[in-house]
Amino acid sequence: MKKGIFGLLAALFVITMVVIEFSSPVGSAANTYYVTIKNDGKEVTKSKFKGYSFNESCLDNNGNSQKINFMSNTQLKKNKQYKIVVQDNQLLVQAKEINNVPLASSK
């Protein structure tokens, strides 16, 4: 009887944690930027990471310009424009090539 109640409580706990995990926003620790790649990425080899490091001027969703550092698993093409999503740990999550980077705001 006690094992059955304990098993039921454990199953309820697991189900609750799964629901909470899937209902939380995935990109809460990531930011979106618009960038024109001006420099080739510097090759980086760290433990459990091999890719390229970039230091570029970007526009955020509000049109404010800022310089950011980010790392990508793949080399982004020089002189191409991208919409990128970068996590707080500076890893590139997504890069989509676009035709035009939005203009900076006059703020």
TrEMBL record:
Source taxon at top rank: Bacteria
SUPFAM superfamilies, sorted: BC4932-like
InterPro entries, alphabetized: DUF1093, YxeA-like_sf
Pfam families linked: DUF1093
Protein name: YxeA family protein
Organism: Listeria seeligeri
Lineage of origin: Bacteria, Bacillati, Bacillota, Bacilli, Bacillales
